[in-house]
UniProtKB/TrEMBL annotation:
Pathway: Amino-acid degradation; 4-aminobutanoate degradation. Keywords: Aminotransferase, Pyridoxal phosphate, Transferase. It catalyses: 4-aminobutanoate + 2-oxoglutarate = succinate semialdehyde + L-glutamate; (S)-3-amino-2-methylpropanoate + 2-oxoglutarate = 2-methyl-3-oxopropanoate + L-glutamate. This is (S)-3-amino-2-methylpropionate transaminase. Transmembrane segments: none annotated. InterPro entries: Aminotrans_3 (IPR005814), Aminotrans_3_PPA_site (IPR049704), Class-III_PLP-dep_AT (IPR050103), PyrdxlP-dep_Trfase (IPR015424), PyrdxlP-dep_Trfase_major (IPR015421), PyrdxlP-dep_Trfase_small (IPR015422). Its EC number is 2.6.1.19, 2.6.1.22. It comes from Acetobacterium bakii. Belongs to the class-III pyridoxal-phosphate-dependent aminotransferase family. GO terms for molecular function: (S)-3-amino-2-methylpropionate transaminase activity; 4-aminobutyrate:2-oxoglutarate transaminase activity; identical protein binding; pyridoxal phosphate binding. It is an enzyme of class 2 (transferase).
Length: 450
């Protein structure tokens, strides 16, 4: 079976002839703004493996950018989606109630670590929709107009979430943008101000929130602070717990809601069902959590969860949508959660993470171009620099690594403010042999390209 295979390239180069022909058709039919630098045309996916149309096998460390924590084509997911499809595909939840939506909301209310004993959940289709809805809910509850986001943040590509996203390459030429979105500094400790110790740097980053209050919006006008527990596009940077606790206190002191964007970090990726479980253990649980990506094994679905009093502040008609909580997606998500809990995939993420960190940290010792290694569970970033002393970013090397590894059967992706980080997001069902094969391909590429 494909899910048990190792990387194998049988064509002279990637793309092979069949893939090349389809990519040429793509170029003619689809806007180039839907960018893809990978010369891979998928025929089949199982587990952590992809087979292309020419019969090449790739181990996938991207997993649809965090969508496939449970892997490609999990047979139990396929079975429940088939079963649901034979009943009905869709019934808009504002028109007919379907039990899958209700059951999934009940399940999410039981496992999502937001503050409050009584919780409510509703569903959307994408991470951007979830984040936008979370902001709407925060404004409805607090009756305040503004929000605070952070440097390095990525929250989506709708008009509001483009504004929330830090990297304006994702919003080029799309303004004017909504008002009331202000940005503080995220604690990127590897690139903290020169000479600062970590403890001093955390205080420095906390102070940047107070600067927003002073220079942009008084605290009493801020509805929410929105933060990724572990920044994705920003470079796989975990939020230090001392900083999280300080942000939680700022919110409590000023009547501000804390929103955790768990679109990429949720569903066992970081060694807990949600990264915010770490926050809850530190008595710093958020008020609203948004989730998406791996929630439904590849079917479009996202969720917004908060305590009941927050959710019930929203006026009728201001949230929801035609496809939100689609029946097929809800069926998949219920089975995803069941499998993750049954198979202890949070523990598997920690086990994978230890193996990857051991190897990455060895490379940090061995290679001048490896500047930093960081992450939680199996969400790990490795940052490449021109040299360790200056920490000058090395995006060209990362671009070359992406091109080189795919020719040898490994799919990897970049991240980071400077495009100089490789993100590890392999499906949690990857075998140890596949993981080792990917690490070997990656290290060989570093040696060749640096």
């Amino acid at each position: 079976m494909l899910k048990d295979k190792l990387p194998r390239i049988i064509t002279e180069q990637i793309p092979g002839p069949k893939a090349k022909a389809i990519i040429e058709r793509r170029e003619d039919a689809i806007p180039t703004a839907i960018k893809c630098i990978y010369p891979v045309v998928i025929e089949k996916g199982e587990g952590a493996m992809v087979e292309d149309v020419d019969g090449n096998y790739f181990v996938d460390w991207v997993g649809g950018v965090g969508v496939l924590n449970i892997g490609y084509s999990h047979p139990e997911i396929v079975a429940v989606v088939k079963q649901q499809s034979e009943k009905y595909f869709h019934g808009m939840f504002n028109i007919v109630t379907h039990e899958g939506y209700v059951e999934l909301a009940e399940k999410m209310n039981g496992i999502v670590p937001v503050r409050g004993d009584v919780k409510e959940t509703f569903f959307a289709n994408s991470g951007a929709e979830a984040d936008e809805n979370a902001v709407k809910i925060a404004k409805a509850f607090t009756k305040r107009p503004n929000i605070i986001v952070f440097s390095g943040a990525f929250h989506g590509r709708t008009m509001l979430t483009m504004s929330m996203t830090a990297k304006k390459a994702y919003a080029y030429g799309m303004g004017p943008f909504p008002d009331g979105i202000y940005r503080a500094q995220f604690p990127y400790l590897y690139r903290k101000p020169l000479g600062m110790k970590n403890e001093e740097a955390i205080n420095y980053y906390v102070e940047s929130i107070y600067k927003v209050f002073e220079e942009c919006s008084p605290a009493e006008h801020v509805a929410a602070i929105v933060v990724e527990p572990l920044q994705g596009e920003g470079g796989f940077i975990p939020a230090p717990m001392e900083w999280v606790k300080a942000v939680r206190k700022i919110c409590d002191d000023n009547g501000i809601l804390l929103i955790a964007d768990e679109v990429q970090s949720g569903f066992c990726r970081t060694g807990k069902m949600f990264s915010s479980d770490y926050w809850k253990e530190a008595d710093a649980a958020p008020d609203i959590i948004t989730t998406a990506k791996s929630i439904a094994a590849g079917l479009p679905l996202s969720a917004i969860t908060a305590r009941k009093e927050i959710m019930e502040s929203v006026k009728d008609g201001t949230i929801g949508g035609t496809f939100c909580g689609n029946a097929l997606s809800c069926a998949a998500a219920l089975k995803v959660i069941e499998i993750m809990q049954r198979d202890h995939m949070d523990e598997r993420a920690c086990e994978m993470g230890r193996k990857v960190l051991d190897r990455f940290n060895q490379w940090k010792e061995d290679y001048e171009v490896v500047g930093d290694v960081r992450g939680l569970g199996a969400m790990i970033g490795i940052e490449f620099v021109k040299n360790k002393k200056t920490k000058e970013p090395n995006p060209k090397l990362v671009f070359d690594l992406v091109k080189e590894t795919v020719q040898n059967g490994l799919i990897i992706e970049n991240a980071g403010v400077y495009g100089n980080v490789i993100r590890f997001l392999a499906p949690l069902v990857i075998t140890d042999q596949q993981l080792e094969a990917g690490l070997d391909i990656f290290e060989n590429a570093i040696r060749k390209c640096m």
